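Worked example 2:
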Amino acid sequence: MRKLLLLLSLLAVATILRAQNNTGYKLPPKDIADLLLAKPTPLISVDRKGEWMLVIGRNSYPPVEELAQPELRIAGLRFNPDNFSPSRQNFISELSLKNLRTGKEYKIAGLPTPLNGGNITWNPGETRIAFTNTTNRQVDLYVIDISTQHASKVNTTPLNTVLGIAGQWLDDRTLLYAGRIQPASAAPPRKPVPEGPAIQENLGKSAPSPTFEDLIKTPYDEALFAFYGQTQLVKNTGGVESALGKPGIFIAVNPSPDKKYLLLRTVHKPFSYLVPAEGFNATISIVDIAGKPVKTITELPSSEGSPRGFDNVQNLPRDYSWRNDQPATLIWCMPLDSGKIRKKQEYHDAVYSLSAPFTGEPATLFQTRQRFQRIIWGNDSTALVFDGLRSRQIEQMLRYNPSTGVVTLLVEHNSTDAYNDPGAPVITRNNFGRPVLQTVSGGSKLLLNNITGSSPQGDLPFLAEFDLQSHQNVIVWRCQPGHYEYVSEVLDADKLIVLSRKESHTDVPNYYLKQLGSSGGEDRPVTAFANPYPQLDGVSREKISYKRADGVDLTGDLYLPKGYDSKRDGPLPVLIWAYPREFNSASDAAQVRGSKDRFTVISWASPVFWVTQGYAILDNAEMPIVSTDSSKKPNDDFVHQLTMNAEAAIHQLAAMGVGDSNRVAVGGHSYGAFMTANLLAHTKLFKAGIARSGAYNRTLTPFGFQNEDRTFWEDPRLYYDMSPFMYADKITTPLLLIHGEMDDNSGTFPIQSERLYNAIKGNGGTVRYVVLPYEAHGYRGRENLLHMLYEQNAWLEKYVKNGAPAGNNGAPGKPF
C-alpha cells in the first residue's frame, strides 16, 4: 500500500511539473502563421486637388520586445518614460509620393532609418507634410517638401507627446508642438521607503465612476505625472524655434482659425485618483500667438462629480472650441437642466459664443431639445448641429442659420437604424484652412457620404445631395452589387470627381479616380496593391440569413474551406464568432449589416484563420438583445435572447448541410467573451468556447457596463443573472480563457479571467487560462499573437474537431 501511495504521489508531482513546464512560445499551423504575418496593404493620404498622394506603408505586428520597453501607466495614460511618448503605437514604416496626374512615383530622400512615423499632417497650402519619428530616446518632427520629395528634421527641442500633442501647422511654414522641458534622467526618483500611506477620502458627495484602469494611486504617481505631463509650447518657422508662453500640463492646444490665438486646456493639482487626466481640474484659457495671456475663460473641477447616466453631464460648461467659419470666435455648451436629462423641459442644452477680443458678454446662439453633441460650421447661412440621447438611441441633424439664429430639424433617426442613416457631411477647407461643410447648387444643398450604405441587399455605400429646403436626400451615386465601393475623398464637388476605394470578394481594395454620373471614360486606378492572402484563394464566403425562434431576422458571414462540397464532404466542425448588441427596436435588430462583396482582411482578432484548417466559420453572427416591451430594457432578457440567437445559427448551418451541430465552438473578444461564457454557463449548445479579455463578474463593474446604465444597487438581480461567474459551477463545456497581462480597457481587468478560471477549476470544469505578457486589451506582440493562435487552434482541434462524442458533454443544441 505504501508503495502504491508513493507511486501515486510521484505521478501527481510529475503531472504538476508537466503543467508548470507547459510554457514557452509555440507556433500555429503554417497557413495560420502566414496569414497573420502577411504585410498589410498601404494606407494613402491625398491632397484636396487630387494631385499628390502620400503612400503610407506599415509592417505587420511588432515583436514582444517592443512591448517590453519601459512603460509608465499613470492618470489613464501609458507612455514610455525614456522618450516621452505614448507606448504601444502603430508606427509607419514606409513613405513615398505619387503624382496622380502623371502617375509617376517618387521615393522620399532624407527619411530617418528606421522609420517609426506617425501624426501625418499636410500644411494649409498642401506643399509640405509633417510627421513625427519616434526613437528609443526622443520624438522628432520631420517635414517633407513635396516639390523636392525630400524630408528634413526641423526640431531642436525633442517633442513631448505623452498627452497627445504632436505637430500642427499654423501656416505653410510654421509648426506648433509641445516640447520636452527636462531629460528623462531628471524624473523624480522612487524613494525606497514611502513618506506615508496613499489616502483617499469622500465626504458624503456622490462620485460614481466607470472602472478606469491605469489611474494615479500614490503621491509618487502624482509626481511622475506632473513631471512627464509638463511641456513647453514651441513655435517653429523654417527650423527656427521659439518658446510660446509658460510651461504647463496641456490637455488640448487649439489655434484660432486666424492663428492669432490659442485655446488651452491646462490641468492642475489636485490630481484625481478616480478619473483619467482628461477629467482632472482644468483651466480653460486663451493666449495670443506669442503666448501672452488674453483671458481665463473658466476653471473646471474634476469630472469625479459627473452624474451617473448616459445622457447626464456635469452642470458645467463643456465642449470648448472655435467657430471654424470666423477668425476667432469661441463657442461652448452649457446644460439648461442642471445636467440631469430626466428633467421635464423643452430645451436641455444651450450653445454660446464669445468673439475676440473676448471682453464682451457671451451670446446665446441656439438651444437643443436633446443633449448637444457637436456642430459642423459652414457659412453665414448654414451650420449642422447634432444632438441626441444615447439612452433612447435617438440622433438628430439640425440646420442652424448663423445669420438669423433659426434652428430647423433636418433628420431624426434611431442610431441603430442603419437603413435610414443619411450619411456624414462632406467636408472641405475654407480660407482659414479649417474644415467646413461642402455645399453645392449655390449653397442650397449639402453632400452626404455614407461609406456603409446598409440596405436589405447588404451594404451599398452611396453619395447623396441633401436639399436644405425640401429636406430630401437624393442619392446621386450608389455602389452596385458585386463590389463594395465607397467615396474616400470628394476632389471636385461640382463635377463630382472623387477618389473611391473599391474591392470585391476576390479583389483586394484599391483606389480609383472617377467622375460620378459620367458616361465617358472608365475609372482610373491610382493604386495596384497585391493580395496579401493567397492562402484564402478559393475560400467561399456568403452572407446568410435566418430567423430565431421569436421571428427576429439574423445574419452572419459564412466562410467555407477551399474546394469544399457539402454533398461530398459532409458537415464540418463550426466556429461561431460574435459580439452582442442592444436594440430598442426589433426591426432595427433584423437589418442586414455587412456585405458579401467585401475582400476578406485578416487581423489578429479574426476567426477566419480556421477556414484553412477545415472549419466552417460563421463570423459576425448577429447576437441582438432586443427590447420588445417599452416597460423593459434589452438586458432584462439577456440570457434567453443569447440562447435563441445561438440556437438559430447552429440550426441554420445544420439545415444547409455545412455545419455539424454536434461539433460547434463559440468565441468572442471583450463583450463577445462575456457572451461566450454566458452561453457556456446556461446552455449545452457547444463543444468548446474561446473567451478573450472579457468581464465575467458584473458586480466588479457596479456603475454600469456596455449599454447598461442601471447600477448594481438599483438591480442586483440583473447583475447576478448576467454574470457567468455566478454560474461557474454550470460551465462544464471546455473553455479557453485568454487575457492580456496589462489590459487597459475599462471593466476588463485581468482579474476577471483569473477569478473565472479559479471558479471553474474549483468546481471541476475543463478550463485553460493563458496570460499574454505585456498585452493590453487589443493584442500586438508578434510572438504573443502566434501563440494565441496556437492555443486557439489546439483547443478547437482537441475539443471540437476531434472531441468526445456529444453525449459526454450534455446534448448540443439544448439549453439547460
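The longest strand covers residues 659-669. The chain is about 15% helix and 35% strand.
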